[in-house]
Each structure stands twice: as structure tokens, then as C-alpha cells.
Batch of 2 targets.
Target 1
Amino acid sequence: MKILVCVKQVPDTGARFRPNPAGTWYAEADLAFRMNEYDEHAVEEAIRLKEKLGGAPELTVLSVGPARVVEALRKALAMGCDRAVHVDDPAAADRDPWQVASVIAAWARGKGFDLVLTGMQSADRGSAQVGVLVAERLGLASATTAVAFECDGQAATVRRELEGGTRGVVRLPLPALVTCQLGLNVPRYPTLPNIMKAKKKPLEVVPVAGLLDEAPRAETLRFYEPPRRQGGRVIEGPLDRLVEELTAILKERALPARS
Amino acid sequence: MKALLVCEYREGKLQDGIYEAIAFAGRLGAGRSVLLIGRETELPRFDGKVIFADVAEAGEYHPALHRDLVAEAARREGADVVVLLHTSYGWDLAPRVAAALGATQVSEVVGLAEGGYEVPACTSKMRRVVRPRTPVTVVTLQPGAFPAGDERGGVPCLERLEVPKAAGAPLMGYEASGPKPVDLGRAEVIVSAGRGVGKKENLPTIAALAKALGGELGASRPVVDAGWLDHGRQVGTTGQTVAPRLYVACGISGAVQHLAGMKRAEFVVAINKDREAPIGEVADVLVVGDLHQIVPAVTARLEETR
Ligand SMILES: Cc1cc2nc3c(=O)[nH]c(=O)nc-3n(C[C@H](O)[C@H](O)[C@H](O)COP(=O)(O)OP(=O)(O)OC[C@H]3O[C@@H](n4cnc5c(N)ncnc54)[C@H](O)[C@@H]3O)c2cc1C
Ligand SMILES: Nc1ncnc2c1ncn2[C@@H]1O[C@H](COP(=O)(O)O)[C@@H](O)[C@H]1O
């Protein structure tokens, strides 16, 4: 059995974002990058399946992006993936979801993957498209937003998170693609010995040029910070003043309205 | 410009999102027709054409079949834009429809801007304006971004759509995701813990503040996903919708899915070390600082002056 996990490296969202000179995306300077949170759940789920099926499946982790994404691939290897593929695309930030999905599909086509796992959405672009588009391009059955996943090697049973505390149950015959939602599992932290071991696992670099055959279907005209709502008060400064002011506000607001 | 608006039918009920799609098409100034995969006895209140496929044949969700039905209706109507809501139905179906139509998909549209659609980026801290380059565009709308006004009204004229046989993996059924939650809906005061609390061991501090204010403890999703609190305390689209007099968000960044659950609170206080956190947009008061220092100190003051 062969499993592919797609991971994206994204900036830590605690950061302050600034537009790049073209005003189409964020400037990367000063940002710290990490594996997209949803994709950590995809990696974890693949590893759990491998453990459950007695180590038989081969786990490939793939990322499209510039040189820095190798860090995210190394983390996935340290968590337990077997091999990594870096589709080297220095201009990945300019690609739209259709192009990214087409690149992934072009690489994966004909390689006999039984299962493809992706995150539900990425933290920076957040289009929630790339997974489903990969499936459509490869002609695979797919389901999004998995909060529970079982697989016996023949078919996958997925519980999709719907609105209002409901789940939808879907059974996909393999080969199939599933996009992973937060809470699907608790991703493991790589241990030090596994981080060392990961350094010896194969990491193949594939230039994007041979895989990219689609023009973008959309363009970004502007990337900017939305205007903040007026009226909200910001309290900052020394701790004792913060505590004083906040205490007063909470006391006033927590009391039932006098009528 | 022509818009095809796609209804969502879930657990035997036509979802209200269609009225937001109708409002959106109005803002676009587009001609409108609606696609309903549902029941003839439950039509949207809409004064125009409804292309109708019977849910008894098409199922409430069957990705490949619904994709084909939406694509067929879009072609038949000559639609320039196909509109869905950014919900579990919409984000699952829209990319399939876009692929089938050779269309661009623009996800989670929150506004219209010169030359394109406005969408959030970087967990709502930033925005982009996206311009499609294909003749047809599929958009998903952020729920709530285009509130329905007085669009509801009128009797649609029905046009039937043949439901073809389709291979693929239909939805097999629904199940409830867990035990009935604690009812936060009626709480007057809610103090919620977010990922910023750092670890489970820090939760009692937040709970103590809730107690000092006579309120309930709530949480954002990561706190629940990590197993620190049960799902009954989660606030947001996949948790509870609350409307307390006072909502205190401790270490919560303010993702749309969280805001959707608490933005009807009368007064919102956020404690966050990040001055730029999107929670600041809905907060009446944003206290910038370390919650580990602020929360215990405030709780102590509240307790001593009671
Ligand atoms: C389909 C879907 C449904 C979802 N449903 C929900 C839902 O119902 N409810 C929900 O909450 N989320 C939901 N989410 C998840 C949502 O997108 C966010 O990931 C989540 O709300 C983030 O939670 P958070 O703010 O606690 O964590 P983060 O976004 O990680 O924010 C943590 C915050 O804590 C601050 N912080 C850190 N340390 C400190 C400190 N010492 N002092 C003060 N501040 C500090 C940081 O500045 C940051 O702003 C859903 C997501 C999807 C895709
Ligand atoms: N550049 C990329 N490389 C690998 N996987 C990606 C990339 N971009 C997106 N994905 C995958 O597609 C999912 C959805 O991304 P998005 O459509 O950007 O919201 C992510 O969670 C990843 O699993």
C-alpha cells in the first residue's frame, strides 16, 4: 500500500504581516515558518494507519515550495514518514490553488498511491481547494473535513464534520483522497532519536518546471491589512494599570443590568 | 452577468444560506436562478427560476452526482458565476464544480472590491482581492458576510433537472458528534480559554476568573481538540452560539469560526499578547498583555473587593 501526504509550510499566524513590494502576498522577511496545522493531522493519521496495518504502507510526504519547505518535510520524516519529495518552486507563492493541485497531481499520476491525505485548508491562503482539486485531477473519490478516519486497506470510512454538531459518514473505496480537519487526532512531537533518524531518510528534490503545465486561473490584485473596526478600546502599559482598569471594567459589566 | 445560486439541503431541511446567496447576487447586480436539490414541498421563497432535482433521487449529498447537476444547471443557464456558501457542503462541492467547468474558484468571499472579490488571508489578519481569469467563476461566500435582507418573497417557477445515474461515494448517513453540550447559550457571563493558555494545567486560573464573575467557562476549539475541556464548552460554528452580556476571551486569536459563535455578545473583552489579533475587531476592550500575569491578578482583585 502506498500513501501520499501533502504538506504546506506556512507562516506562524501570530506574526504581523506586511505586503510584499508587488502588494500581492506577504513579505517573508521576519516570519517564522512551520508545517500547516491541518497537515500535521494528515501526517499523524498516515503514521497511525501504517502502525495499525503492521508497517506495510509506504508513506511519502510531499511539499511544493521554495527551499525553506524542506524543514516541514524533515519534521514529517521525524514524525514517521518514510520518504519526502520537495517540488522545488521558488515562485510557489504566486501559484493559485489550481496550479498547485495540478503540480501535485502531475507528480503523483501513475505512481500508484492508494490513499492521499491533505489538510482541509492552509493557514495563509485558506482556500480549502488544493486537496479536492488533486482528487479531481487524478480521478479519485474524495471527502473533506475528516474528524474520524478508518481504513482497512480496501476502503476508507470517513466521518465528515458538518455544521451544528453533526457528522456525515462516507465510505470511499481506495484509491481515495481525504482532507483532514483539526481534532482528527493529536499529532505527535518528533523525538530526538527520530529527528536524527530522519536525516538519513530519502529526500528527493524535483524541479517544478517539468510538472507545471497550467496557467493561473486567478490573480491577486491586492493584499492588505483590513481596516480595523473603530470604537474598541485598547488598554496597554504596565501590569498594575492593566489590572486596575480591567478589574473596574469587569466589575461593571458582570453585574446584572439595573432596571 | 448571470448567477446560479446553489441551495444546501441537510438533514431534511433547506438551509437558510440560500438567502445570503440571493443577497450576494443582488450586490453583484447579476441575474439570478436557483438550483435546488431538495423537495418540491419546500421551495425557497424566491421570485424567479428554480431548477429542481429531487433529493429522493440525488441524495442530500453525493459529491460526483451533485457536481454534475450543478455543472449541468450552470451550462444550461449560461451562468457566469456559480454561488455556494463556504460551509461543509460548499467547500466540498465547489472545487469539483470548478474543475468540471474549467472555472476559477474564489473561496470564502467576504466582499466585493474593484475588479474582483475580497477574501480573507492569514487567518483573517489580512485580505486579498482576487480577480478570476476564466469566463466562469465559482465562489463560496463566508456565512454572514452578505446578510439576507428582505429578499425572501415570491413564488418560484420550477424547471426540472433529470437526475442521471452516477458512480461514486454518496453520503451514507448522519450521526451526532457527541453528548449534549453544557448549555452556554443562556449564560450571562462567559470567560473563554484559547490556545494562548498554553497547557491544561493553566485552565484553573481561567475557571477561577469565570467563577469570580459568576459566569461559565467556555473555550475555543484547540482547547477542546487537545482534550483539555469537553466539546460542550466550545464556542463557535462547530460548537455553541452564545450571546452573554459579557464575554471574556483569554488567549483567543479571533478566527471567523470562533467569532461566529460569540459576536452577539453584548460586551467583549479580549486579553491577548498580540495587539494585531483579529479578536480586536470585535472586542470592546482589548487588553494587550500576558494572560498568565493579568488573569490571576484580576481574579484576586475581584475576590478581595467583593
Ligand atoms: C470548519 C471549521 C470549523 C471550526 N470551528 C471552530 C469553532 O467552533 N470554534 C473555534 O474556536 N474554532 C473553530 N475552528 C478553528 C479556528 O479556525 C481557529 O483555529 C481557532 O479558533 C483558534 O483558536 P485560538 O484562538 O484559541 O488559538 P490561536 O489561533 O492559536 O490563538 C491563540 C492566541 O493566544 C494569544 N496568546 C498566546 N499566548 C498568550 C499569553 N501568554 N497571553 C495572552 N495571549 C496569548 C496569541 O496571541 C493568539 O492570538 C474551526 C475551523 C474550521 C476550519
Ligand atoms: N504548496 C503545497 N504543497 C503541498 N501541499 C499543499 C500545498 N498547498 C496546499 N497543499 C495541501 O492542500 C491543503 C489545502 O490547502 P489550501 O487549498 O491552500 O487551503 C493543505 O492543507 C495541504 O495539505
Target 2
Amino acid sequence: MATVLEETAERGAVPHPDITRYSDVNRDILAILGRPGFGWWALVVLAAAGIALLLGAWGWQLYRGMGVAGITKPVGWGVYITTFVFWVGIAHSGTLVSAVLFLFRAPWRQSIYRTAEAMTVFAVMTAGLFPLIHVGRAWLAYWLFPYPNSRFLWPNFRSPLVWDVFAVTTYFTVSATFFYLGTIPDLAAAREQAVGLRKKFYQITSLGWRGTDREWHHFSKAYIYLAALATPLVLSVHSVVSWDFAMGIVPGWHATIFAPYFVAGAIFSGMAMVITLTVVLRKVFGLEAYLTTKHFDAMAKLILMTGLIVLYAYLTEFFMAWYSGEEIERTSFWQRLFGSYWWATWIMLVCNVLVPLMLWFKRVRHSIPALFVISIFINIGMWFERFVIIVVSLATDYIPFAWGVYRPSVVEMAILLGSFAWFGFWFLLFTRLLPPVAIAELKEVLPAPMRRKGVAHHG
Amino acid sequence: MADQERGGVLAAFDYLDSIVDAIHELRKAGYKSLRAYMPYPDHHIEEALGHGPSPVRVWTLVGGLTGAATGFAFTTWSAMDWPLVTGGMPIVSIPTSVVIAFELTILFGALSTLIGLFILSRLPYVKPMIVYDPEFMAGRFGLYVPASGARLDDAWRILERHEPVQITEDREGAHVA
């Protein structure tokens, strides 16, 4: 007796009209893993040069001491901490796409989530460098972790900085686990087409995955639970990062709005980075059939929404500073707009508030070049947001006598630049070693092949 | 019977409804331990095979609870081990423990889910892949029926009725896993 499979067309499903068969997905995506061209090698050389710059600058700082960085009294947290928060923020939208949108059953996530998740892992790896650089004596960084030392001293768990250590290491471990788990079936798919050394690599990393019902059965459930764990995690991590500031009594930091404000900002900036990266991937590897304008439209809407939350947070901050009637709080925010760092604040406002407003227009959301340019603006704006929050607040706190102006040194700027190279290097490696579009999961949103036509379009 | 578990037949299908129908018919005919191969997790096949809830969730729960307990216990114990008296604030502070306990809940829960998955689905699988077709990773569905003798012939006939792309006999019983 023939079974009639139920109709489960999902709401908001994104059609992929140019992909007809399951094997097309393997063919198209695995072709990307082929021999890299000249452009890829050129970018790798560029990234390697950037990493050399990073290591050189860091080495110089280790050799000469923290004096080569511009941070000093009163601004003890400068470019390093700004960039740390920036990269942690970038990471967040990857988890949003891979875990939160998975739980919400948003079918448009399938094409972009692998890229977004890889971005998360690499961004946390980049962010993780900065506490090491910032602490100065990087070889003693293990002091951050609780371990049985000779005097049985433990970290002070009342400090938000210790929470941050736990939050960021957990975030890295869990997002790397989640990323790897989701990749296993695709590594198995890559294994079947690869030859030589690559085949060995995929054979080992795919753990002998065969796609049996038992494997998939436990895999799908494990994936749901990991997504359910990653969702509160992503909210907690940037909340904890924001408490590094909000728990201090510095004017401009000590605000209850900080946790949601930082989380929204993180997703805002991360989504922009996803667009920046996927636009390039789509162009370079010809993934037009997989990353359609509908995907970009959905991402742009997310940016618009989180951008409005960020705008709301800005307005609240300024309003509360004025409404509190507190002289010091008012001064701090006046300094943001018209003080020594007025330019940083105005860059932030233009990039994060004005430019994303263009996304209200459907024509802009459907134009890939426009989205690319807007995403770059947001990336810049969000770096400056963290710079403004951290530096301006510290530069002009309670006593005008102690005020000062911080100028980032060459070493700090070199390390900032090098961090992009470090991130880019891992991302370049990723595009050649792992399928950048999730092969197995994409098939879940394609119509299943049916012998009897028209019985099901499953989700 | 012991020899029934040795050997079997592997069919590859191009269509989802074919394999689902075949599973239903084979199960009705009394075939057990059917194994399906699929390029993505298809719930029609899982339902046809009659999978119950996966015990992975127990691993997640136990791991998460262990993490929470560890977080609270460790922060409390270390605060009491070396009391830091500051401004009359409590030595054992619940709000600060919550953050650590929360992060460890997630960390332990995630790692234990991963371990649970590996144990339950018997990964990594290191035996040679004999009864297997690389096409299962691309677009085909596979169905393996452990049977021998007359039962194998019956299974063969049932499978054939659902227009498989390919049927192969596995004499050695290499698949038993």
C-alpha cells in the first residue's frame, strides 16, 4: 500500500528554483573545495603578511613592555579592549543564525549558517587574542583560570572580568563543538569526492559517518539540544562582556541597559559581517543559486531591527544622562558628542544610525552592492561604538584634573589591523577545507524527490 | 535464528516515497533491524522505522545539572576557603555564583551532549565501509535488510516492487553494526 506523505511546506520557505536535484548540491558545493586559484593564494599571502605584522607588533610590546601601547592613565582600556568587544560582538550573529534561527525554524538560515558559524568560531579566536595582548605578560595568562596553585588562591568570582573568562571560553568551546558537529555529515560528503591527502583529512574528520538512520536520529536530537544551549549562551556572553563595564562606577558605563544594548549591538554588527563575507563568497564561488536576494533581504531586515534597538539604546543613554540631572553623567555624554572624541561619536552615529535607515527601502535590501557597502559602514560604526563607550568614558570621568586624551599608538593600530588578517586567514582556510554551504541541511529545504508526483513538499 | 542475522540485502532508492513504502511493507512482513541511509535527516523515514525519543536528552540534562552544581559548589567553596572580607558584603555571594554556574551548565551540557551522541550513534565508525554507497551522501536513499535464505529472497522481491536503482546482496554479513 502506498503511503501518502503529508504536506509540510514551511511558512516563509525560500525556494531555490535553480537547484533541482540533491546531487546538484554536492556537485556545486564540493566544487568549491577544488584547487585554489591565484586570487586565493594572493589573499593568503596578504593574510600571512598581516599576521606577521600582528606578531611583530605584539613581540615588540612583549619585549619593550606595555609602554609601547598608548594606554595609560586615565585611559587604561583602549584599542585592545575595544577590538576584543568588537570581535566578540561579530561572533554573536553566527550563533544567532545557526542556533536561534534554527530553533525558530527559519528556513532561510540553511544557506548561510555554515559561513556564519565559521565566522563565529574564528571571531572568538580573534577576540581571545586581545585579553592576552592586553594583560601584558601574556605568558602568565593562565592566572586567569582557577587552578590549584601553590598558595591555594582562587580567582575572585565577584569580578566581572572572571565571569568574562568563563563566558568567553565556554562560548568558544560550545560554538566550536556546534560548528564541528554540524559539519560532520558534510565532511563525509566531501570524503566521497576527495582524493589523496584531502581524502585522508575528510576520512578522519568525518568520523566514519555513513548517514544511517541511527546516526541521524541521535544527531538531529543532539543538534537541537546544542542549539537550545547555545541560544541562552549567546545572550549571556555579551551580557557578561557588557558587565565588564556596567559593573564599574565609571560615568557612561554604569547603566542597567548595557546587557540588552550590547547583545543587540553584537547581532547588528555580526549580521553586517555575515553580509560582508557572504557577498564575497557568492561572487567568488558563483553561489547565486544558493544565496538568493531573499536571503540577503532577510539578513537586511535583521540588521534593520537590531539597528533600531541600538538606536533606541543610544537615545535612552543620552536621555537618561540628561534626565538624571547628574552633573558628571551629563558631562560624560556631552563629552561624547562635543569633546575631544567628537569625531568618533559622529562616525558611530552616522554609520550605525543613519546609513542602516536606507534598509527600509526594498530596492536597497535587494541590491547586493548596496548591502555590501552598508555592511562595511556598520562594521566600522560598531568598532567606533565600543571605542566611544570605553575610551570617552574613561578619558573624562569624575575629576576634570584627571582627564586625559588617549591616542592609539602605532603598535596598537598594527595589532588591530593584524587581527583582521588573523581572522581572514582562518576564513580563507575554511572556504577551501570545509563546505561553506551546509550540504545536508540545505537538502532539508529542497523538495524531496517523489516517484508519485505532487505528494509532498517537505520542510 | 543466528544465521538470519548474517547477510542481507542493500537497496538504493532515488525517491523518498519509494523507500518509505518499502520500509512499511518490510516491517509488516516481519523484518527487523532495518537500516536506512539518507543524505539528510528525513523524518518520514525515521517515523516509518519507528524510532522512539533519542536518549541524547538525558546526557544533556545530566551534563547541564552537573555543570550548574559544579559552578555553585566551586564558587562557594573557593570563597569560603579564602574569605575576602570587603565592605561587609557577603562572603558567599549568590548573584556572582549564578553567572559562573550558568556558563558551566552550558559548557558541561554541551560537552556531555556531544559525548552522548558519539556513544549512542557509535561514532567514530572505524570499520571498513563495505555495505555502503557513496551516493548516500549525495542524493540516494539506502535500505539495508538483514536476512538470509528464503527470507532474503522475499525481502528482495519486496524491495524490487518499489523500483530501487540498485539492489546488492551482502553475503558476508559485513554490515552487522
